[in-house]
Design brief:
Number of helices of chain A: 4
Oligomer: homodimer
Number of strands of chain A: 7
Chain lengths: 133, 133
């Protein structure tokens, strides 16, 4: 969902304001128990080029959470904010980046996508049911 | 985990900066299938006093996501940012608020806490494994 945020900045000594749409995304995916240590190690030390590419693709305030379910399975939950105006184009830009592809070649085999995700998804996109700015 | 953010503001014609710690929280809980419509309806129209109490308790940028798992069970995932400096005290303040208690008297019976959550938790707190500002 979208929030309209007000940004104020200084230009030529004047305070100038502008508004910008922010789209929030929450997603979920499984993670293999035997890959947990490696997944955590990689994400505690992310490659600077991958982080830079995320920023370049208008992703910000991106967090990934890990939790164990009572059945012993592990899941990852991601939250990020998108500040661009063409999400599909920016996601394609991410996917076309060789260093990002290399990162994913390590992380994809650690993950277990939910079988009921939408077609074309890897992480399953969740539905936002509440938001408070 | 914490981020240190820079805020710039204008005071007496001068730009003044300050830093503030932000703690992010990700949590998960089950939700009963038969309560989905009611839960969504309530959260699409939250009580203004409950939202105001969240703000008063230094909670901001709070989102709740819903998703169905392949086994047919439904889960809620929450993400929020805490900008105060005494989380336990602020959570107690929330819990002591009569209108919040009334809200929870409706929502608690709709939820199914994970049996492997930590003692004293309702929503299960997840572990942050990655963050990009």
């Amino acid at each position: 969902m979208k929030s309209r945020w007000m940004f104020a900045f200084i230009m030529g000594g004047m305070i100038v304001g502008c508004t910008r749409d922010i789209q929030r995304y929450g997603s979920v995916i499984g993670v293999k128990k035997e890959a947990l240590a490696n997944y955590k190690e990689m994400h505690a030390n992310p490659w600077p080029e991958v982080n830079a590419q995320l920023k370049e693709c208008n992703i910000r305030n991106y967090s990934i959470y890990l939790t164990e379910f009572p059945d012993g399975n592990y899941y990852l939950f991601s939250y990020f904010e998108y500040t661009g105006n063409d999400f599909r184009a920016d996601m394609k830009k991410m996917a076309d980046d060789p260093r990002t592809q290399e990162w994913w070649s390590h992380t994809d085999p650690m993950q277990i996508p939910l079988s009921n995700r939408a077609q074309g998804q890897w992480w399953k996109t969740m539905e936002e049911v509440y938001h408070l700015d």
